[in-house]
Design a protein that fits this description.
Strand order of the largest sheet of chain A: 1-2-3-5-4
Number of helices of chain A: 10
Number of strands of chain B: 5
CATH class of the largest domain in chain B: Alpha Beta
Strand content of chain A: 5-15%
Distance between the termini of chain A: 46 Å
Structural class of chain A: alpha+beta
Number of helices of chain B: 11
Largest interface: A-B, 24 and 24 residues
Radius of gyration of chain B: 17 Å
Order of helices and strands of chain A: HHHHHHHHEHEEHEE
Number of domains of chain B: 2
Largest sheet of chain B: 5 strands, parallel
Number of strands of chain A: 5
Strand order of the largest sheet of chain B: 2-1-3-4-5
Radius of gyration of chain A: 38 Å
Oligomer: heterodimer
CATH topology of the largest domain in chain B: Rossmann fold
CATH architecture of the largest domain in chain B: 3-Layer(aba) Sandwich
Largest sheet of chain A: 5 strands, mixed
């Protein structure tokens, strides 16, 4: 039996072009199956039958059957029941004409499997019915033309003989045929559940992407709309206020607000680019550069290292770096920027602990998707993370075990 | 002197608006609140006439704060500050009892006019923008309640004009009556329909298909 390489019916919602491509691939596969089956079984049998046994005109019948079986393999995905019905009809003719043994008939298992694999329940039941007919034909052929019981075609068989034959001659092909349909059905349910898992993964990935985009849009609105609203309010206030000293102070506020907004926008754009193409060089080796960049955005980062740099597995290394990046970004966006951010990298036992704490802003917002992402990332890299508020400080503590670098 | 309370979670935004308000001889800033809960408390303590209310704030948002303030003190007028001109939150705040909305980037003259207008109660702030807002987010076409049938023929005419956003002066001019008469009619209409103020009348007309617009 052939293992089925392509899950043609796995995704009913498959768009049309992809479906067409699958059809072309499937047809190619079926062509190979048909060619191998016929080439290895039918042609030698036909030649041997014609040359060494006196098949006479049965040779023509067998040639027609060969062609029909080949065709049934080619259409097995699209019309499995029809292909099977055609073959069973042909088998009836074969039995009725008392044609000789023709091993290519074993290829009928391919359409049987296909009916189990590609049909829904009505098709499978029809195939089961046809396989019952086929097994009766096979049993009849074995006992008569096959010469197993010494009866000739058309002869009346005693009832106790019939029962014996039923058990020993009809049951085996019956089992073989129905097992084949069941195998097809089993493969189809496995393919279906695999497809369901795949679809679920894709949709959850899409949901995450959408969530990230929505979060980014919110951040963008927070930065751009809020800063510009402040700039407009301050500028209008300055236009109306009579006090020149207040006017000057206001202009300073406007410049400061705009500058801060520009920094935030840069940060958001960097995040956007980062989410489009993951940075391949993320590693704790780049902590200095990261800290420098954060200082460049106006964050007072105090970096302290305790102990050396333990060898970390690559996943833990990336996760640790991202964690630090996320913590610093959060400090910049939600923390009090007038206060320093303390970063400590400590070698503790066979691993590293990253400790970041920053002063909270006056009104801290709720923990966003960034913090959730941190936990997720740490878990995946075999590490552990704790985030929370201690007194007026927001604190992120993460530990990653060392490994063979 | 109109007493104004400024509510916004951004201190610098508040200070800008404060400068604007204090430059006006007839306006006085009586306080600033950084969130809805503070706003409710200050509205109680400072007895403002008009509250400029941001919508999105921590602790308690502008919609709930508006609701609490107008429940506690029905004579306070709330003007909602929004970033977008079609902001569903603004529609909800108006339904909760705000008297109108102003964009945060509106010209200062407009902000000042909005404060004076809602305080006087003679007309609706940005009537056409309000109609657009409820066109986008309003609950559409409920049939008119029984109370509407209690309006007299005259009151219905005045109602239709006020629903279009016309001021008392404009209604008086178009109907050849005095402004005082219009004012009496309007307050009787609001009383019969159980509405708070003119913007509620516009919303009522729009949501019950009484605005007389051929859309």
């Amino acid at each position: 039996m052939t293992a089925d390489p392509i899950a043609t019916d796995a995704q009913p919602a498959e768009p049309a072009p992809a479906r067409a491509a699958l059809d072309r691939d499937a047809l190619r596969v079926d062509g190979v199956i048909a060619a191998v089956t016929l080439g290895m079984l039918a042609v030698p049998t036909l030649l041997i039958g014609a040359l060494f046994f006196d098949w006479g005109w049965h040779w023509l019948l067998c040639a027609i059957e060969t062609a029909a079986i080949g065709a049934s393999i080619l259409v097995r995905r699209r019309w499995p029941v029809l292909a099977l019905a055609g073959l069973v009809a042909l088998a009836a003719v074969h039995v009725a004409l008392a044609a000789p043994l023709f091993p290519i008939w074993f290829a009928v298992l391919v359409p049987l499997y296909s009916a189990g694999r590609f049909c829904r329940w009505p098709g499978r039941l029809a195939a089961a019915g046809l396989s019952l007919v086929a097994s009766l034909l096979a049993a009849y052929w074995i006992t008569t033309t096959g010469g197993l019981a010494g009866y000739s075609p058309g002869q009346l068989v005693p009832i106790d003989e019939v029962l014996r034959f039923a058990v020993f001659i009809w049951v085996p092909p019956m089992l073989l045929f129905s097992m084949t349909i069941l195998i097809g059905w089993g493969v189809s349910s496995v393919a279906r559940s695999e497809a369901a898992v795949e679809v679920a993964q894709v949709s959850s990935r899409r949901a995450t992407e959408q969530e990230e985009r929505a979060a980014l849009a919110r951040d963008m609105h927070d930065v751009v709309a809020h800063s510009l609203a402040v700039v407009i309010a301050q500028a209008n206030g300055a236009r109306y206020t009579p006090d020149p000293a207040v006017k000057d102070a206001t202009l300073e506020t406007i410049a400061g607000t705009a500058k801060q907004a520009l920094g935030d926008v840069r940060l958001l754009l960097a995040q956007l680019r980062h989410s489009e193409a993951p940075d391949p060089v993320a590693s704790l080796d780049d902590v200095d550069a990261l800290v420098e960049r954060m200082r460049g955005s106006g964050l007072d980062v105090r970096l302290e290292r305790v102990g050396g740099r333990p060898p970390l597995p690559r996943t833990a290394d990336i996760a640790a770096y991202r964690m630090l990046q996320e913590a610093l970004t959060n400090a910049l966006r939600h923390g009090d920027r007038d206060q320093p951010v303390h970063v400590r990298l400590m070698t503790v036992g066979p691993g590293i602990v990253i400790d970041v704490h920053n002063r909270l802003a006056a009104a801290p917002g709720p923990a966003g998707h960034g913090v959730r992402g941190m936990h997720e990332r740490a878990r995946l890299a075999g590490g552990d993370v704790w985030t929370g508020i201690e007194h007026e400080w927001f604190r992120v503590r993460a530990a990653f075990p060392a490994g063979i670098a | 002197m109109i007493r104004v309370l400024i509510v916004d979670d951004q201190a610098l935004f508040r200070s800008g608006i404060r400068m604007l308000i204090e430059s006006q001889p007839d306006l006085q800033c009586v306080g600033e609140a950084a969130d809805g809960a503070q706003a409710v408390r200050l509205a109680e303590e400072q007895q403002p006439d008009v509250v400029l209310m941001d919508v999105r704030m921590p602790v308690l948002d502008g919609i709930s704060a508006t609701d609490r303030i107008v429940r506690a003190r029905p004579d306070v007028r709330v003007v909602v500050l929004t970033t977008f001109d079609l902001d569903e939150a603004a529609a909800r705040a108006i339904r909760a009892g705000a008297s109108g909305f102003v964009l945060k980037d509106a010209e200062p003259e407009l902000v000042l006019a909005a404060i004076r207008t809602v305080h006087a109660g003679n007309e609706v702030v940005a009537a056409s923008a309000t109609r657009e807002l409820f066109k986008a987010f309003g609950r559409q076409r409920q049939s008119a309640p029984a109370a509407f049938a209690e309006l007299t023929e005259r009151e219905r005419q005045i109602f239709a004009l006020a629903a279009k956003g016309l001021s008392n002066t404009e209604i008086a001019r178009s109907e050849f009556v005095s402004e005082a008469t219009v004012k009496t009619h309007i307050s009787r209409i609001l009383g019969k329909l159980g509405l708070r103020d003119r913007v509620q009348l516009v919303v009522f007309a729009y949501e019950h298909g009484l605005a007389g617009e051929s859309r």
